Amino acid sequence: MLLSLIGLGTFTAQAQQSRYYQRITRIVTDAGDTATLIILRPIYCFPKRTFKSQKEKEYYWRNVRDVKKVLPYAKLVHNALIETYEYIQTLPEEEREKHLKRMEKELFEEYKPVLKDFTYNQAKLLIRLIDRECNQSSYQLIKAFLGGFRATFWQTFGAMFGVSLRKEWEPEGKDRMLEEIVILVENGQL
Q1: pLDDT tens digit string along 141-184?
Q2: How many DSSP H helices and E strands does the chain contain?
Q3: Residue 163's CB: how many other CB atoms inside 10 A?
Q4: Ranges of each domain in the chain
Q5: CA angle 55, 61, 67 (to 5 degrees)
Q6: Counting C-beta atoms within 10 Å of the first and last residue's C-beta, which end of the chain has fewer, N or C?
């Protein structure tokens, strides 16, 4: 029926978003007919989680809390990287380094107070979620934008605190529980 509505000519559409559906579109054809198209969000079903102990249950819910707090920043990093990459491609070669240094300084000033409030585990989780969102480790991202020397500096600095910028996201391995939590949080199921 939708294909026949599209085939009748031009139409107008209004879209809305909700926690339960991705989009509701009201389609009006040239003939004045209307139809509503509802695209539901995917619903992910995982086996019911059972906990062997109270400690394990607390660990799970602590991870849920941390993912909810850290995930928006990982997505922000991903969006900033895409935006920065596209912008520096338009700059002449000599301006790129100046822009990246200026951007690094501005980001530190803006997000340092927020990141200082992160716990040790939240900071480690942020590094792993950045890898998940960007499909590259934090070390690779720093190296690509700021150079190998700075990447090595930050890797060494992190290593002093037991954090590796080279760790990669393993959704089928050690990060399986976190991947499940991230999916459920992204879809509003947690």
Answers
A1: 777 766 777 778 777 777 777 777 777 778 788 888 888 888 88
A2: 7, 3
A3: 18
A4: 2-40, 54-186
A5: 135
A6: N
